Automatic annotation (TrEMBL):
Transmembrane segments: none annotated. One of its GO terms (molecular function) is catalytic activity. PROSITE patterns: RADICAL_SAM. Coiled coil: none annotated. Residues 38-240 form the Radical SAM core domain. Its cofactor is [4Fe-4S] cluster. Gene3D superfamilies: Aldolase class I (3.20.20.70). Pfam families: Radical_SAM (PF04055). This is Radical SAM protein. InterPro entries: 4Fe4S-binding_SPASM_dom (IPR023885), Aldolase_TIM (IPR013785), Radical_SAM_PqqE_MftC-like (IPR050377), rSAM (IPR007197), rSAM_sf (IPR058240).
């Protein structure tokens, strides 16, 4: 069922189908698409736990098996406020979110407020109860793909067997791009049945930072983006906003199909300790705004200097006369190294 929220004073309507994930922001006749949504974010990233027993080197949250969980009552308060702001869906993360002790209740409560829950998992801790609740209430689940991919393969099979829309998150860097190209040319059997593979630009943040892994250091950028956007590709493909500069520079993709980063404009991030940021990666770099009984999410959304700084960056002329500036909006405010168009 298509949901529509009309913002007459802002000159546009947002449409969202909770069953398919379809979303569109449609300006009124004669109006431009809005730069940001003063009423609140359409999407929220929420870290419900910093618990994880995997210890990945690139984890910018430094998650461990000693990580703390967000209290259930705090989560419910966040979702109540999100629903009041017209937030359509939330992306639950961590740590490994499905290993939160109240995860089933978290999914049920989110759905009961008219907000669609989605989450990313490393595949561990997916009990029958969690899988059943996921199938009933979630829009989609993303499995993080890590070599040697045995655990990834097993998790994909488990999710698809339970009738759950499954995406694969693949961290794209100067080394893994070789695997990405191989998969695009000839997808491995374990990817059969997934909804899409989503490529995430490697961020120079985590337990260990490998400068040589930055995507801009590969000589195969043009080859990769050509394959990933080819009408003949064998996999449905998506990109995070940090790949937009590459999509625009190396393909002929219609710019109306490309979204610049939404952080601070249409999305926000809430950490397990109730710190609020425009983007989750900022949590590793600076202090966020504290959500408490005196400060609401809407207060932070409309008044925070953090949020304002992101909006100022996206509206600036940092990239000058670049013909893609209106679509790319200057790239990432946090990591200049993610820009792969060659203009910076």
């Amino acid at each position: 069922m298509l949901k529509a929220i009309r913002y007459k004073s802002l000159g546009y309507t947002s449409f969202f189908n909770p069953n398919t994930g379809f979303f569109a922001r449609v300006p009124d006749k004669g109006e431009k698409e809005p730069f940001w949504s003063p009423h609140g974010p359409e999407l929220m990233d929420i870290s419900i736990t910093n618990w994880c027993d995997k210890g990945c080197s690139f984890c910018y949250k430094y998650s461990t098996k000693y990580g703390e969980h967000m209290a259930l009552d705090d989560y419910k308060d966040v979702i109540d406020q999100a629903a009041d702001m017209g937030t359509f869906q939330v992306a639950l993360g961590g740590g490994n979110p499905n290993q939160h002790p109240d995860f089933v209740e978290i999914l049920k409560y989110t759905a009961s407020k008219g907000v669609v829950p989605n989450y990313t998992t490393n595949g561990r801790g997916l009990s029958d109860e969690i899988l059943d609740t996921t199938r009933k209430h979630c829009g989609a689940v993303a499995i993080s793909a890590y070599p040697p991919y045995d655990e990834t393969s097993d998790t994909i099979k488990k999710l698809i067997h339970n009738g759950i829309k499954t995406n694969v998150h693949f961290i794209l860097d100067a080394i893994s791009v070789d695997t990405a190209i191989d998969w695009l040319n000839e997808p491995p059997d374990f990817l059969r049945g997934i909804n899409a593979i989503v490529f995430l630009n490697y961020k120079p943040s985590g337990r260990k930072v490998f400068e040589n892994k930055l995507l801009r250091h590969t000589t195969r950028l043009k080859e990769f983006f050509r394959l990933a956007t080819s009408p003949q590709r064998k996999l449905k493909v998506g990109f995070d906003a940090c790949c937009v500069s590459g999509v625009l520079a190396y393909t002929d993709t219609n710019t109306s199909m490309v979204d610049a980063c939404d952080a601070g404009r249409f999305s926000m991030y809430v950490s397990e300790d109730l710190k609020v940021y425009p983007c989750s990666f900022q949590s590793a770099l600076s202090e966020g705004d504290q959500l408490d009984s005196e400060t609401t999410l809407l207060d932070i959304w409309t008044k925070s200097r953090n949020m304002g700084s992101f909006r100022s960056y996206f509206s600036s002329d940092r990239c000058g006369a670049c013909r893609h500036r209106s679509s790319c909006m200057n790239g990432c405010p946090l990591f200049d190294e993610l820009v792969v168009c060659g203009n910076r």
